[in-house]
Amino acid sequence: GENVEQHPSTLSVQEGDSAVIKCTYSDSASNYFPWYKQELGKRPQLIIDIRSNVGEKKDQRIAVTLNKTAKHFSLHITETQPEDSAVYFCAASIPGDSWGKLQFGAGTQVVVTP
Amino acid sequence: DVKVTQSSRYLVKRTGEKVFLECVQDMDHENMFWYRQDPGLGLRLIYFSYDVKMKEKGDIPEGYSVSREKKERFSLILESASTNQTSMYLCASRTGQGVIGYTFGSGTRLTVV
User: Fold this and answer.
1) What is the DSSP secondary structure assignment for residue A17, as one 8-state letter?
2) Which of A42, A47, A90, B37 is most buried (most C-beta within 10 Å)?
3) Radius of gyration of chain B (CA)
4) Which of A42, A49, A89 sits opposite B42 (nearest CB)?
């Protein structure tokens, strides 16, 4: 089945710097890749997603890139702010699955220091 | 505007107890999921349901069962709670149409003592 690896597990950045989180997936037939942000004590929330027919997607300070050949996708956060501190999860759709199941990475704890 | 509601934020139960975790969504979603979240392991799928009374095992179903008698409600049952089931439990739902992400509940932190 699909396997998703996420790196790094923790990331400390200075406010204003950029943060990059990378995920790799095992099944080239995966076609949907969402990213979730989970602030302390809150529910995971979808912040951006990308489909396999697109190489890059941006939404203000966040962007996701997808390299299908290498089977990896990355989350980029520019001009980081303290409110970006959270755990970020990547996920990949499971090929052949009709029910929308996702395989999640282990998560990245991002700490933005002022 | 809470759309996926988990009935309890925190629960403390004793080993051997039968535990019910409830999840209700008001978005008329077909698909509902139960995950457990553990540090370093991410989110692991326990069970999911794609329709009323329909259920399928996920990656770690052992020690759990589920019930979906109504479309909006999906219950996770720990038949005999054990300490290794201490975890954060997250419910999620999505429409059955198309390729989109989940809406998560706020989670239930269960401690089994």
Assistant:
1) S
2) A90
3) 13
4) A89
pLDDT value, residue B1: 61
pLDDT value for A52: 86
Using the beta-carbon criterion (under 8 Å), do A100 and B31 form an inter-chain contact? yes
Which chain B residue has the Cα nearest residue A1? B59
* Nearest in space to B107 (alpha carbons), one of A89, A42, A47, A109: A42
Closest Cα partner for A72 from A2, A6, A18, A1?
A6
Q: Nearest residue on chain A to B3, judged by CA atoms? A: A43
DSSP A46-72: EEEEEETT-SEEEETTEEEEEETTTTE
- For the segment B1-30, what is each residue's pLDDT rounded down to a tens digit? 659 999 899 999 999 999 999 999 998 888
User: Is the separation of the CB atoms in A30 and A45 below 8 Å?
Assistant: no
Question: Taking CB atoms and an 8 Å limit, are B104 and A36 in contact across chains?
Answer: yes
Sequence-ordered list of residues with C-beta below 8 angstroms from that of B68, at least 6 positions apart, any chain: B32, B49, B51, B52, B53, B54, B55, B74, B75
Q: CA–CA separation, B24 vs A13, rounded Å?
A: 38
Sign of CA dihedral A81, A86, A92, A93: negative
Question: Measured over all CA atoms, what is the biggest interatomic distance in chain A, rounded to whole angstroms?
Answer: 45
Tokens of A17: 């710097």
